[in-house]
Design goal:
Elements: H1 2-14, E1 15-25, E2 28-37, E3 42-45, H2 46-53, E4 56-59, E5 64-69, E6 72-77, E7 82-85, E8 88-91, E9 97-99, E10 102-106, H3 107-117, E11 121-124, E12 129-132, E13 170-175, E14 185-186, E15 194-195, H4 196-213, E16 217-220, H5 230-239, E17 244-251, E18 266-271, H6 277-287, H7 304-312, H8 315-334, E19 339-345, H9 348-351, E20 357-364, H10 368-375, H11 377-402
Parallel strand pairs: 1-12, 13-16, 13-17, 17-20, 18-19
Antiparallel strand pairs: 1-2, 2-3, 3-10, 4-5, 5-6, 6-7, 7-8, 9-10, 11-12, 14-15, 18-20
Amino acid sequence: MLSLLAFALQLAAATTPSPPLAVRVGERVRNVGTVTTRAGVRALRADQLMAALGGLYADHGDRRVELVWRDLRVELLEGVAVVVSGRDTLSMSSATSRIDGLLFLPVSFATQLLPRLSSKLRYDATARELHAAAVERPRGASATTPAVNASSGRATSENAASAGAARRRIVVVDAGHGGPDNGMSGPIGAQRKVREKDITLEVARALKAALEQRGITVIMTRTKDTLIALSDRGKIANHAKGDLFLSVHVNAANPRWRDPGAARGYETYFLAEAKTEDEKRVEAMENEAIRFETSADATRDDPLGFIIRDMAQNEHLRESARLAELMQLGLRKVHPGTDRGVKQAGFRVLVTAFMPAVLVEIGFGSNRGDSDFMTDPDRQRALASTLADAAVSYLDQYERKVGGTP
């Protein structure tokens, strides 16, 4: 009894009650309790939502949770604002969270995303009810268990006829830094300062729009001024089953250079051991963001060299190098600065992305000319357009080479 009371007190400390969500299945209505988290997100328990719908909830214990309702199967990852269902990859308004062992989802998952994923679900905003269409089932069929293909163990789908259709290309766009981590600040000697985290977010948003115009599905690691752990950014890409990972950053000159304010230009990195002093400088500058992760263990990914050597045996190293080359060629068309070339370094943000991945330094924020270029909305769109073209060109080349999907 005392342990139950302690558990309730812990949960109450992390959340405050909010109005329940009504779930109607046929004539039956069940209320699912909701809470407002400390972050101000209205959330509900994933297991209770599935119980109300008559679905299945599976916690695989590796931060991955699976929800199954009729012919709909959804995968979620703890701490990530991404939903994967078949060929669909959607962003949620906020990440999932685990409170005292229980997985909570933003209420918008039930009211907005589920109706998008299944035509059998509809949210009535006036009545504040999630409606599930009643289904006539064959005699003897389970009321809660979806039909399963015995050979694959996967839930069957009404869209099985289109299962052979090509999967949509998915590119994960990462806006560097965010939240308390401002990144670099510049230009040198200017009264009006710009911050890296603001520039990268604006360019990342423009890149998302440009890629979507080209038929690419885009997942953003962050869509607002918030801190995302370096190691989690690659995990978001993996969970989304991304084809490419593009991390956008702004460079800064070494203050010990003879004329640091004059340094400008663009460069693209792939994951490998840094060899030159300048590569090591940029690596240290970008990896320094880990100090803002209050719960991060700075040694948990060490020895980094071992991971890099392991990655060197992986095909992604070669593919990332090719992607970086195309990014540089594209930037050369629109950037007024110097082409500083393709480089390599051990960026933590790239270590956990198991796909072709690059980090693009789109200019020197410490330089007035580059700073003006990167903060101009028209130039941001030009940057985004050429990066999007490079990504599509890479995917086209890769698919021709392997003769299939990415």
